[in-house]
Amino acid sequence: MKPAPMTPAPADAEARRRAAPVICYPVETLPHPDLATYRALRTGMERVEAITVPPRDAATWTVPAGHFFRILCSEGPQVGDLNLFNAQNLDERLYTGKTRALNGTHLGTGDQLFSNFPYLRPMATITHDTLDWYGFDAFGGAVHDVIGTRCDPYTHNLLSHGGQYHHCCHSNLTRALAQATGLPLQEAEPHVHDVLNVFMCTGFTRDTGQYFMKASPVRPGDYLEFFAEIDLLGCLSACPGGDCSAQHSSDVAACHPLLVEVYRPHGLPEGWQPPAPNGYDRSHG
């Protein structure tokens, strides 16, 4: 956070502050998903798998390219931390930093989740969000952020002066990925990455710029739906903070399971193909 200033303001301080902002990454030339086509695919699609993510734990699933998956609030207000991988290549995974730069701090219908360098391509497209009514509240809070990194045992240890907590989202994701891939925990852990905070309501305080969380507006029956642009391995932790109204990395917060459903459409648009990896030649000048 910004400390109290020690440097006297220059005479033109206000003029400098009034400089107009410029969007870093104009996206007018970025190919946009055809949501009307995706919505048509949703009609009559067939559920082929359902996975329960236990409270304070994580689970994995696979989604073939051209299928849909939903993350559902099934029993009570609960947030989830989502990792996405190329199902054939763990080195390609969700890149929240670039996803945030191209879409904004909080995601919604029509936004795409991009993979890391050198692949940098859409991995999944958000096709439906039952919390799209929430918008930004009076505190600047909104749902489905790509800001926070995931609750983890290292930060917990740092802030609690030595505490050991194993059911934070980072550890949950590590255990689930290790089980799904057969990798030892120490080899699986480096693949766990910054998350899409599904259903979590977050923002930055206006006075200090600190990352905050507040009670999620999610209720049973709400869901966030994605179209898989490539073959995906998903990994989701049901955060030990529950609805994150008070704390995370907690054994006392009320926590609930989450449900993941995978759907197969009855067909795909003629000529549809998964997006190719990024075309940069990697010569770096």
Structure summary, number of beta strands: 13
The proportion of residues forming helix, as a percent range, comes to 10-25%
Weakly predicted, low-confidence segments: none
Rounded mean pLDDT score: 96
- Element order: H for helix, E for strand: HHEEEEEHEEEHHHEEEEE
Structure class: alpha+beta
Task: Based on Cα principal axes, name the global outline.
Answer: globular
- Computed over alpha carbons, the radius of gyration is 20 Å
Structural overview:
By secondary structure, this protein is α+β, with helices and mostly antiparallel strands. It contains 6 helices and 13 strands. The protein has helices at 13-17, 35-42, 96-103, 153-159, 169-181, 185-188, and strands at 46-53, 58-63, 68-73, 80-86, 89-93, 112-114, 122-129, 142-145, 196-204, 211-214, 223-228, 232-238, 258-264. Strands 2, 4, 5, 8, 9, 10 and 12 form a 7-stranded antiparallel β-sheet that branches. The longest helix has 13 residues, at 169-181. The two termini are 37 Å apart. The relative contact order is 0.27.
